[in-house]
């Protein structure tokens, strides 16, 4: 048995790991997809950095952070991704990064087409639709069939590329925030390249729980969060642009603080959350020490499978995310087929069983309940969830 698989089942190890985190008494949190917890040591480091910057103010920032520390942090981030440092720039979130990529992509002419699907994040949808108003392009929106499979997902894009020959740009989400479906990015990106379509990848939920290599995926443009599965403070994300494709993204609204050859000119220039950024070396160290995305992903998948396997065939319950290991991660959604109002069932889970989840709507397959265990979740909590779902079904 692989080490990460063996460790994923080790409740004693993960209970020891969970002891590194402060957890407020109350509902069992199964909505860990919103943002992740910082460890106790990261919180302490963050607090120290707040006090440091508050004391030293611009003296430290101008003399040390801007000249030394920010460069070192950027290099550590690039090492995490296995990309050159000049390919990444820090942002406040994945949404900020994706909006910058979409609005500054310079390869569009009036009459061109851009593509999105029903599973995209709402901010990405609105940004792509913004292109129609300001660039004169046509927005093509497709819906994925349900239940999805690897083959149907890839085929839906191949069909779109043939049907809409003026496509130049598309949005693609690695891990969809509504259902947790993991898209076959490499196959879709390869098909897009065949038809001359550029891909902007939303990696907000992927980083930290899925192992990937951007070169192998065939991705040149992407946005990510650091506050979900990496363990950083809120307000931290980054933009990725393959160095050879930097010229295809314009400086953000004429940004001039950095040279046109510097990726940092592709994001808005502002005073960032410097204390949060200064915690990143410790965050990266802790992420690597536990085994990185391979270890975290194996644990989250194990917890996911505990409850999914218990309810998959229960009448009155539909698990929205396939069991193909290529298409799922820790985030998975379900719905009660005998109840029209999924929010009412979210409320029942909380009020009757002390389980905190979240309803999600907007996808063609209908409203659902998103369930996301975290790294402090236990196998026993997954069994409690399964029992609650069965009783409510």
Structural summary, described in words:
This is Class V aminotransferase. Residues 44-372 form the Aminotransferase class V domain. Pfam families: Aminotran_5. Keywords: Aminotransferase, Pyridoxal phosphate, Transferase. GO terms for molecular function: transaminase activity. The protein is an alpha/beta fold. The strands form three sheets. The protein has a seven-stranded mixed beta sheet with strand order 2-8-7-6-5-3-4, with helices on both faces. A four-stranded antiparallel beta sheet has the order 9-10-13-12, covered by helices on one side. Helix 5 packs parallel to helix 6. The radius of gyration is 21 Å and the shape is globular. The model has no long low-confidence stretch (mean pLDDT 96). 43% of the residues lie in helices and 14% in strands. The protein has 14 helices and 13 strands. It has two domains: 3-30 and 292-392, Aspartate Aminotransferase, domain 1 (Alpha-Beta Complex), CATH 3.90.1150.10; 48-285, Aspartate Aminotransferase, domain 2. The protein starts with a helix and ends with a helix.
Summarize it.
This protein has helices at residues 3-8, 11-18, 40-56, 58-81, 94-104, 122-135, 150-163, 185-194, 214-217, 274-277, 280-289, 292-311, 342-353, 379-392; strands at 28-29, 88-91, 113-117, 138-142, 167-173, 198-202, 221-225, 237-241, 317-319, 332-336, 355-356, 358-360, 368-371.
Strand-helix topology:
Elements: H1 3-8, H2 11-18, E1 28-29, H3 40-56, H4 58-81, E2 88-91, H5 94-104, E3 113-117, H6 122-135, E4 138-142, H7 150-163, E5 167-173, H8 185-194, E6 198-202, H9 214-217, E7 221-225, E8 237-241, H10 274-277, H11 280-289, H12 292-311, E9 317-319, E10 332-336, H13 342-353, E11 355-356, E12 358-360, E13 368-371, H14 379-392
Parallel strand pairs: 1-11, 3-4, 3-5, 5-6, 6-7
Antiparallel strand pairs: 2-8, 7-8, 9-10, 10-13, 12-13
GO molecular function: transaminase activity
Keywords: Aminotransferase, Pyridoxal phosphate, Transferase
Organism: Pseudomonas frederiksbergensis
């Amino acid at each position: 048995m692989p080490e990460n698989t063996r460790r994923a089942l080790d409740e004693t190890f993960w209970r020891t790991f969970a002891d590194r985190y402060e957890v407020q008494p109350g509902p069992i949190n199964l909505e860990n997809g919103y943002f992740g917890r910082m460890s106790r040591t990261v919180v302490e480091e963050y607090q120290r950095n707040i006090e440091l910057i508050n004391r030293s103010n611009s003296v430290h920032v101008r003399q040390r952070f801007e000249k030394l520390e920010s460069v070192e942090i950027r290099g550590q981030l690039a090492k995490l991704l296995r990309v050159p440092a000049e390919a990444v720039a820090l942002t406040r979130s994945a949404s900020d990064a994706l909006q910058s990529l979409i609005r500054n992509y310079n390869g569009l002419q009036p009459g061109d087409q851009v593509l999105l699907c029903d599973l995209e994040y709402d901010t990405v949808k609105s940004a792509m639709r913004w292109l129609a108003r300001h660039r004169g392009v046509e927005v093509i929106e497709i819906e994925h069939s349900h239940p999805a499979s690897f083959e149907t997902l890839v085929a839906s894009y191949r069909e779109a590329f043939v049907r809409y020959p003026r496509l130049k740009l598309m949005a693609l989400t690695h891990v969809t925030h509504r259902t947790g479906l993991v898209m076959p990015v490499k196959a879709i990106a390869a098909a897009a390249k065949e038809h001359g379509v550029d891909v902007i990848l939303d990696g907000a939920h992927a980083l930290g729980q899925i192992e990937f290599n951007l070169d192998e995926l065939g991705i040149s443009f992407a946005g990510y969060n650091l506050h979900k599965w990496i363990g950083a403070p809120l307000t931290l994300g980054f933009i990725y642009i393959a160095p050879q494709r930097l010229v295809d993204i314009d400086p953000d609204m004429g940004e001039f603080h950095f040279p046109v050859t510097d990726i940092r000119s592709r994001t808005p220039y502002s005073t960032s959350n410097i204390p949060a950024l200064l915690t990143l070396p410790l965050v990266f160290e802790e992420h690597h020490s536990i085994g990185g995305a391979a270890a975290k992903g194996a644990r989250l998948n194990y917890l996911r499978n505990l409850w999914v396997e218990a309810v998959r065939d229960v009448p009155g319950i539909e698990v929205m995310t396939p069991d193909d290991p290529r298409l799922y991660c820790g985030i998975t959604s379900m719905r009660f087929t005998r109840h029209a109002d999924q929010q009412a069932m979210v409320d029942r889970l909380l009020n009757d069983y002390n389980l905190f989840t979240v309803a999600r709507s907007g996808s063609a397959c209908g409203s659902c309940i998103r369930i996301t265990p975290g790294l402090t979740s236990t196998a026993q909590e997954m069994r409690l969830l399964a029992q609650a779902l069965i009783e409510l079904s």
